[in-house]
Amino acid sequence: MEHNAIDACIEEWETLSNEYRALEKIHKEYREKLEDLTQLQQKCIKGIAHQRYRISIIKQSLKKLNHKDDPDNRERNQLLQTDLIRRKAQLYDMENNIPKPNGLYLKIILGNINVSILNKEEKYRYKDEYEKFKLVINLVAFAISTFNILTNIRTADLIHMFLLVWYYCTLTIRESILKVNGSRIKGWWRAHHFISTILSGILLIWPNGETYYAFRKQFMLFNMYISFVQYLLFMYQRGCLYRLKALGESHNMDITVEGFHHWMWRGLGFIIPFLLIGYLWELYNAYTLYVLSFTENAEWHVSSLAILFLILFLGNTLTTLSVIPQKIKERMKFKYRFTRLDKYIWTHKKRRVSFRNPESPQRRTPAARAASFSYKRPEAKVADETHTTFPVPQANSPDIGNEIVINEDEANCEEKKLLEMLDDVAKNIDFETVDKENNDDFNVEAVNGGNEEENVNVLARCEAAELKESFSDETKKDK
Questions:
Q1: Which stretches are transmembrane (predicted)?
Q2: Domain layout of the chain by residue ranges
Q3: Contact 74, 67 (CB under 8 A)
Q4: DSSP assignment, residue 256?
Q5: What distance in Å separates the CA atoms of residue 136 and residue 157, rounded to the nearest whole number?
C-alpha cells in the first residue's frame, strides 16, 4: 500500500532491507546447493557409465563360458543373468533423474542448451502440453480445411500450408526434447514428422496450375479426416496414459502406449479401422499424384509428393501392423505371468488350503495341491512327532491314566483321519513329475541370449519361485 509520509517510507525500506539480507543468505545457500547438485550429477553420470561398462564385460565373459555340463554353475549363471537384467532396469530409472546430452537435431536448432527436466511432475506437464498442442493445431487445421473446401482463396491455402510446415517443425523439436527426457516414442514416428515437414514445404511452394487444383479438394478432405483421427487418438492415448499412470505401469514421458491391457483393446480396436483408412488414403493420394505427373506441364512437385505419400503409407502401415501383434503378445505374456503365479499361491482366504483349514481335493488342481502340501511323511517321523506332543503323566494323579488313554485314542483317531485325508489328496499326484516341471520352468536356457521377452519371463518365474518358497514356509508353520 502507499505511504503518506517520508518516515513511513523509510521504515518500510528498513524492513525491506532486513528481508533482503535474509534473502541473500538463502540465495547463497541455493548457489552452494546448486554447485553440490552439479557435482553429484557428474558423479552419478560417471558411476552409471562405469556400471554399464562393467556389466558389458560380465556379459561378454558369461557368453564365452560353457555351463552345460555343470548344473550348479548353470543355475548360478541364470541367477547372475537375472541380477544383470534387474541392474540395467535400475540404472535406467536413475538416468531419468539425471541430465542427458542433446541429440544432433537439438544441437543444430538450440545449441548446447540443457533441455533435461528433472522434476517428474514438470516432465508429465510438458508431455501433457505436447498432447494439447497437437490437439489444438489439428482442430485449427480442420477448421481451415473446411473453409478451403467451401471457398477457393489462394491466401487461405497458403496459410494452411504454412501452418502445417510450422506445426511439423515445432513437433520435431518438442519430440526431441521429450526423447532427451526419457520418452519412448518410436523412431518411425519421429521420421514421419520430418517427412511431413518436407511434404508440407513442397505443398507450400507448389504454384497454381492445373495439377494443383486437380489435387486440391482431395488433399483438403484428407486433412479434415486426419484431423478427426488425431482427435480420436488424443482421447484414446490420454485415457490409456491416465490409467497406466494411476496403476504405476506407465512412464511419465510416454507418448504412445507400450503396455497392453484388456481394457485398452476396445479403444484400440475402435481406432485401428480409422487409422487404416487414413493410410489407404495416403496410398490413394500417391496414386493420384502419380497419374497427374504424366499430364502436360506437370511440375516436379507432383512426382515428389507422390513419392513422399507412398513412403508415409508404407511406414505407417508396417509400423501399425507390427505393433498390434506385439501388444497382443504383451497382453498374453501378462496373463501368462499371473497364471503361473496362481500355480504356486492361492490368495483367496476362503479357498486357501492348509492343515488347519483342509478342503475337498476335487476343487483343486493337482499342481495347486502339490504346491499346498509337502509330501514328506515317513511313518516313523510322523509317529515320533505325534507322540512327543502328548503330556507326560504324573504318578500322583489318580485319574491321569484314564485321561492319557482317552487322549491317546483321540489323537490316534485324528492322526488316522489326517493321514487318510492326505492320502486321498495326494494319491493322484506324481510329486517327482511336478517338481521336475517346476524346475524345468525355472531353469530356462534362453536367459543367456539376452532377449527382452525371455528376460521378462525369467523375472516372472524367479518371482514365482520366491513366492513358492515363502508359501512352503507358511505350510510348514501350519503343520
A1: 135-153, 159-177, 189-207, 219-236, 263-281, 301-324
A2: 37-98, 104-340, 361-390+404-478
A3: yes
A4: S
A5: 19
